[in-house]
Amino acid sequence: MQFTQGLHRALQQRPDAVATVCNNRIRTFRQLHDRVARLAGGYTSLGIGCGDRVCILSLNSDRYLESYLALAWIGAVVNPANFRWSAQEIIYSLNDSQCVALIVDDTFTPMLDEIRRGAASVRTVIHIGDHGAPADTESHEALIEKSTPIPDLGIGGDALFGIFYTGGTTGTPKGVMLTHLNICTSALALLAEGALPADAVGLHAAPMFHLADMMMMTCLLLRGGVHVIVPTFRPEIVLDLVERHQISDLLLVPAMLQMLVDFPATSERDTRSIRRIMYGASPASETLLLRTMATIPTASLMQVYGMTETAAVMTVLPFSMHRADGQHKDKLRAAGRASFHVQIRVVDAEDRECPRGEIGEIVARGPNVMQGYLNKPEATQAALKGGWMHTGDMGFMDSEGYVFIVDRLKDMIISGGENVYSVEVENAIAKHPSVSACAVIGIPDPDMGERVHAAIVLKSGAHVTQDDLYAHCRTLIAGYKCPRSIEILESLPVSGAGKILKTELRKPFWSNQMRAVA
Amino acid sequence: MQFTQGLHRALQQRPDAVATVCNNRIRTFRQLHDRVARLAGGYTSLGIGCGDRVCILSLNSDRYLESYLALAWIGAVVNPANFRWSAQEIIYSLNDSQCVALIVDDTFTPMLDEIRRGAASVRTVIHIGDHGAPADTESHEALIEKSTPIPDLGIGGDALFGIFYTGGTTGTPKGVMLTHLNICTSALALLAEGALPADAVGLHAAPMFHLADMMMMTCLLLRGGVHVIVPTFRPEIVLDLVERHQISDLLLVPAMLQMLVDFPATSERDTRSIRRIMYGASPASETLLLRTMATIPTASLMQVYGMTETAAVMTVLPFSMHRADGQHKDKLRAAGRASFHVQIRVVDAEDRECPRGEIGEIVARGPNVMQGYLNKPEATQAALKGGWMHTGDMGFMDSEGYVFIVDRLKDMIISGGENVYSVEVENAIAKHPSVSACAVIGIPDPDMGERVHAAIVLKSGAHVTQDDLYAHCRTLIAGYKCPRSIEILESLPVSGAGKILKTELRKPFWSNQMRAVA
């Protein structure tokens, strides 16, 4: 099975149905298919071949989808960059995966020079923006216009589809290698769970570089549904699109859900076309879920819990468990149960299965589990110990197989739907000349779920402000990873073995609530 | 993904739900899991190892299901024998696949001596019947009782799951090699099509050796549904079970569907629990479908068109296209459209895709396509030419991707849901001393769909009756393959190139109807 499967099937079964809607561009599957076949021809003429790695750095667009499809068409491997990353982080991923080409939109062309200087392997830049293509770049539209369509090479199965970079616990990002089979099996399982049924009109509101939207994309392609695409999430634009295109399906991270229900106009607009909302990628509170049900009563909710390393899907909390009337209330805090294709266990530090109700690490096995981390055999071996993906998430399982997550990977912070690895932030802070020691934790934030908070010990006689520290970090890491608040301590609490006790640091902030429950 | 996935998942999520119902035996998933783990331990103690081939020769039973699961548990490869075959045909398959063990029920123990003499590789016989185990056999129940449970070896993915023998066009059966991935991906796709939703109670009415029931089995396992098992299909027993166990889902071949709607009591019994009927494996007439809808009005119908070589699934005609009110009437004769995981094309003799509406051979590509025919590299290469499974079925595709089958493999006869290859029957007939030449065709039969008919040229002065010929063939091939009617001709019609023109022979029988339309 290959990522392009859905496009071929849709062309065969509903060629003249609408495939993509983006800005004022509306295209059918026949048009999409033709454009992708030409674009693939164009890529080939630029010397991009099977197995070559190509980075996409762009906000959401129909051209982003076309790029994904055309790369898969010729067996190239995509590196969809997290557009919130700094140029240095993106350059790291380009060098790590030895990308030969970069696909970039208008928003990120200002970063081009720096990226080109830092990533010598990039021979070609393709521009997918609306403005004219910058110097020394190829235009996506021109490539489509001038190239001859070529047949799909049929690369799929265990062949690599993409390398998806996630923040690394050691401070460097890790490239998660996912195959066509990884992606397609997760998508099939989600369809079997009832996601995106026939005649779905789906909105790409989550960023296309992220595995969550990748599931929306793959499922919609397999269903032959309509892809409505918005560059970035903004409640007012989402509401406009829902009304205009009668959108039936949303996939949102909880931070987006929060923004949507907080937005005053949401309850006044016509949202009755919305039949289903999938959510995931970070914890959603019961309050948020109940508010969503009240604000958009036509929508059934489904939670998908997973991670990049498991091609986004591990457990599913189905529509039937999201009830506004309080039925199944005890399950609403669960992340769901193992989906059809996955085996899930909760294990102790020695990888022995924990009794039900006992907290341990959640591990997963199945056709959706990554091949490994690119160029990181040791990290791969640790993550896939014994053939099971060790998620780093702590939780327990009840007698009916529902998984409850009680803590994310000990030190990880989930802020606005993005994973922030504290070590990476600590590494940045530690480079500040005034800082002697530091520890970064997540503290509750009404908008972001958690926000990044730094506890700092200063060097003798030194001084630092919140603004100083933020500005310093911003030169090294993405804005969303930088600390939003700080506290100055005389010393950090340490265990007998000398390890910093973050649990102690967290206590004052989390005393009234459980942290990071799903 | 592995065949045992559903059992593990059901144990985790609904351990005390009913798993199997067979005769008066009712067992939960917890019990089924325990029995399978012990049985696997028992197999291991008998020296059956990973990769070993094991034949099952049995009517349907809960023990058949347990055997499938326990073999997959230890990575053994199953050869589920077609129980309508003669001992010689079964022996062929045992030798071809070098089976080390045979699992047999009471019905087939009378064949044991002959099979043992013919198949030297069979070291162990395991008895899954209700009566006492015959001499020199191991008892299934005793193995479960005395063995220690062992953990699932976790064999799956591209590992071989089974070798499924189909009648060979050259007169010898071919062993279709199917992997765990082949089976599981087809099952996931069927679930995505809406087959066997939550809380399904399914009936195993089709034989368990057949890929059609294998889909029922795998889907039901993945859903954690109830397996109600009947030894062989009989309308009165099926109706009893439907009432007693509130069966929601049936999978029937058209011959069974015909028997069910023809059975006088069907309309008088309470069949309201039946929500869905999947059918496939041979053509079903529009009349039969409309009668089914009228007789069991609570049932939605779904057609699945496929073959052993594609793990049973190629196209699906969904519930929504089966309407008693005449809507979508033009599609009711279609076999459906490519399912989520399959690519389907109609091609000419040079493998070029035919324009829509033009008749050609139906070919398929996808993760469900077999690895090949065991020990038959040339047949494998021919069948999988260019990476596409050449089905031998002739048909066309309409503008919406619906596939219409206009003729089965030119010479194949489908009788009572079973494929009968004419060459094999002709080989048998030709061995009769009175026969000079013969040709075997399928002719219309109200009960069987088609029946096997032989056109014969006698040797000079010789004589043969229908009964003679049947009895002669019965010593060589299974009863359902033997000719049910004969005609004596002076000569067979031949083409200029000397090939027998079966189309000419068929004409008088098929003048009023199209042959083998789906």
Q: Care to describe what's here?
A:
The structure is a homodimer. Chain A has about 525 residues and is of the alpha/beta class. Chain A has three domains: about 5-320, Rossmann fold, CATH 3.40.50.12780; about 340-405, Roll (Luciferase, domain 3), CATH 2.30.38.10; about 410-510, ANL, C-terminal domain (GMP Synthetase, Chain A, domain 3). Chain A contains 15 helices and 26 strands. Chain A has a nine-stranded mixed β-sheet with strand order 2-1-11-10-12-13-14-15-16, with helices on both faces. In chain A, helix 14 links the parallel strand 25 (about 450-460) and strand 26 (about 485-490). At the A-B interface, helix 1, helix 7 and strand 16 of A face helix 1, helix 7 and strand 16 of B.
* Low-pLDDT stretches of chain A: none
> What is the overall silhouette of chain A?
globular
Figure out the total of helices of chain A.
15
Question: Which radius of gyration of chain A do the C-alpha atoms yield?
Answer: 23 Å
- Average pLDDT of chain A: 91
CATH superfamily of the largest domain in chain A: ANL, N-terminal domain
Helix content of chain A: 25-40%
List the helices and strands and how they pair.
Two copies of one chain form a homodimer.
Chain A: H1 5-13, E1 18-22, E2 25-28, H2 29-45, E3 53-57, H3 62-73, E4 77-80, H4 87-96, E5 101-104, H5 112-118, E6 124-127, E7 138-139, H6 140-146, E8 160-166, E9 174-179, H7 180-192, E10 201-204, H8 211-223, E11 226-229, H9 235-245, E12 249-252, H10 254-262, E13 276-280, H11 286-295, E14 300-305, E15 315-317, E16 337-338, E17 343-347, E18 360-365, E19 372-373, H12 377-383, E20 389-397, E21 403-407, E22 412-415, E23 418-421, H13 422-430, E24 435-445, E25 449-458, H14 466-474, E26 485-488, H15 502-510
Parallel strand pairs in A: 1-11, 3-4, 3-5, 5-6, 6-7, 10-11, 10-12, 12-13, 13-14, 25-26
Antiparallel strand pairs in A: 1-2, 8-9, 9-19, 14-15, 15-16, 17-18, 18-20, 20-21, 22-23, 24-25
